[in-house]
Amino acid sequence: MNYNKILLTCFALTCLAQAKAQNFRNLNFEQACDTSKTGLCFWDLSWGSKGAVKQDIQNGTPSLFISGTKENSVGFTEQASVFTPTKDIRTITVSATMRSDSIEGKGAGLNIGLYDKDGQLLAFKDMGGFYSVEWVKGTNDWKDYSISLVCPVDVAKIKIGVILFGKGKLWCKNYKVSFTSIAGRKANKLATKYITAACDTIIKNSLVRDSINITSLKETALQIAGPAKKYSDCYLAVSYLLESLRAYGDHHSFLMKAAEVANWKNDGSSVSKIEFPSSRIINDCGYILVPPFHGGNQKIILAYADSLQSAIRKLEGSGIKGWIVDLRLNTGGNMEPMIAGLGPLFSSDKLGSLVHVNNVAEA
Predict the structure, then answer these.
(1) Most buried among 178, 259, 268, 347, by the most CB within 10 A?
(2) Are 210 and 323 part of one and the same domain?
(3) Where is the domain boundary, 181, 201, 234?
């Protein structure tokens, strides 16, 4: 008996099984499946009611179809695949061609989730994000979209998906997943300048700066950025740097792209339409609903704060017995207008302050 041949055969079968485990299936949406809530084999319904996600035929080509009837409706489908850990850091890119019809609300797009062997989320990327303006909205003809994420060496499972967060219709076809090694990539002057600036900012301001090896992180980030032709080509590398801080307790650092900064300075409507506070009397108590505020426009900041203070003055003159401040729908954002607006309800001139990593508090 040739044991070497048997061992070689077993090794080959193991490698084949691992390779297949990393493959995603039914990316062309051709395989229909009655046992799946989406009606598509291998595509799970992660969020939404049955029928929100299903197969559709567009001009003879099978496609993924997601629909929503309300602005807060959600249709979310994913599939997962085991990922064989490697010593080589790679990037994963998910791309697809999508068409939309009258999408209102947060929007629609692609997503990637990376998990370790214990099922803990290592990194997540979608076309939305808290401050992103890249969701698919409105009515658009077929267009190609893609997102990318760096795969750490301890990735054990990957989830890919498509989501519609809102009202309207979305069609998706030509779904593809690809991996690219960063081995051997060398950063040019533009990439080196940008990544160096990002690392300098992290080591100066991050709360976990003393816990990280910024030299090692920078080396990897430079490989990811590689031969960048413009600063936006370095965004993936910066995202890698920021995601690397999560394991040490920094869950608040994020990168805002140029379009996101412009939206922030304008009125925030591309992310979350700024709603002003509302008030009324409930059981002899003054009730104030304080919505989130995602924006940096100074005129709107003042208007929001003024509306809160005006509501407080009006209710205070109505002989109320107490206050109800409703924060249930408040997802945060820019706290300046919210704190300033609620100022009359507090007795202290200073409620708190931001403290820098060097333990110096802002005035």
Answers:
(1) 268
(2) no
(3) 181
**Over the Cα atoms of the chain, what is R_g?**
25
What is the separation of C-alpha 216 from the centre of its chain, rounded to a whole number of angstroms? 25
Domain extent at residue 44: 26-181
d(CA 297, CA 299): 6
Give the model's confidence band at 175: pLDDT under 50 very low, under 70 low, under 90 confident, else very high: very high
DSSP assignment letter at 247: G
Where helices occur in the chain by DSSP H, the ranges are: 3-21, 189-205, 214-225, 235-245, 258-266, 298-316, 336-342
Residues 50 and 157 in one domain: yes
- Give dist(CA 87, CA 24) in Å, integer: 21
Per the CB < 8 A criterion, the answer to whether 100 and 140 are in contact is yes
pLDDT digits (tens, 9 = 90+) for 147-158: 999 998 889 999
The residue out of 164, 181, 198 marking a domain boundary is: 181
5 located within any domain: no
Per the confidence metrics, is the pTM higher than 0.85? no
Percent of the chain's residues with pLDDT above 90: 69
Alpha carbons 120 and 2: distance in angstroms, whole number:
43
Expressed in angstroms, the distance from the first to the final Cα of the chain is 81
In a shared domain, residues 159 and 106: yes
In angstroms, the CA 148 to CA 24 distance is: 16
Residue 359: inside a domain: no
Do 215 and 94 belong to one domain?
no
For 189-216, the DSSP string reads: HHHHHHHHHHHHHHHHH-TTTTTS-HHH
Question: Could you give the number of structural domains in the chain?
Answer: 3
Residues 290 and 316 in one domain: yes
